[in-house]
């Protein structure tokens, strides 16, 4: 393994752990100075991660998408980056620990099991494939964050219903804001999946002459995209709200995760490059 890449690979989970620690400490203690510092820390962690991904791309001459554990590090970055954008847009920081821990877990798994491949199928060197996969991962990052906000919504709803006003009640934003955060995250996910699907429709027939539109990955991705599309439409026109949208968001996340696991470890698909 390239020494620089090895150093980055080891440091990344430590940086995410440190970022998670400071977000968790602020969640518990609500220290004003830490509140102002933690945004800078997550920004620096994400920049370090971005540099790592760029270095991997140039050293191995292909986007970091050749095996599931390379994809995990890109997914970790996508989740962290998507949350960072949401935090900047909304200035709501109390939910950070619940999302950053997911990025940390994905990066830790990637660091432990990642393989550095120099000899790969020529198709995996395609920059367009890199954009396609990155768009899909941003989509999955968005729906992951939407599901986290959904679970937080249900947890807070349960506490309020049972008249429990502990730390969760004190630190989390209200139900209306959690619902909006879940919706905006789902919207990011939907846009990411839309871009990935459009690129796939245009590019896949050229890259894989024998591919089938009945490929399980294509079908499952379309189902997830359709679920979120319906939910977003019903939310936008006022037909749905509250727990209905949250439940659909969580269901879409579960379907997406089952799809990712089954395609990469069980089913045979042209998406399963390893």
Notes on the structure:
The chain is an all-alpha fold. It has helices at residues 3-29, 32-60, 68-90, 96-113, 127-161, 167-171, 175-207, 216-236, 243-265. α5 (127-161) packs antiparallel against α7 (175-207).
* CATH architecture assignment name of the largest domain: Up-down Bundle
Number of helical segments? Answer: 9
Fraction of helical residues: over 70%
Shape call: flat
CATH fold naming of the largest domain: Four Helix Bundle (Hemerythrin (Met), subunit A)
Number of strands: 0
**CATH first level of the largest domain: which class?**
Mainly Alpha
Question: For the report, how would you describe the main beta sheet?
Answer: none
Low-confidence stretches: none
Average pLDDT works out at: 84
* Secondary-structure element series: HHHHHHHHH
Helices and strands: which structural class? mainly alpha
Strand content range:
under 5%
Count structural domains.
2
Rg, rounded, reads 19 Å
Topology (elements, then pairings):
Blueprint: H1 3-29, H2 32-60, H3 68-90, H4 96-113, H5 127-161, H6 167-171, H7 175-207, H8 216-236, H9 243-265
Helix pairs in contact: 1-2, 1-4, 2-3, 3-4, 3-5, 5-7, 5-9, 7-8, 7-9, 8-9
Compact description:
The chain has helices at residues 3-29, 32-60, 68-90, 96-113, 127-161, 167-171, 175-207, 216-236, 243-265. With 274 residues, it is mostly helical.
Defining key terms:
274 residues; mainly alpha; Four Helix Bundle (Hemerythrin (Met), subunit A); 78% helix
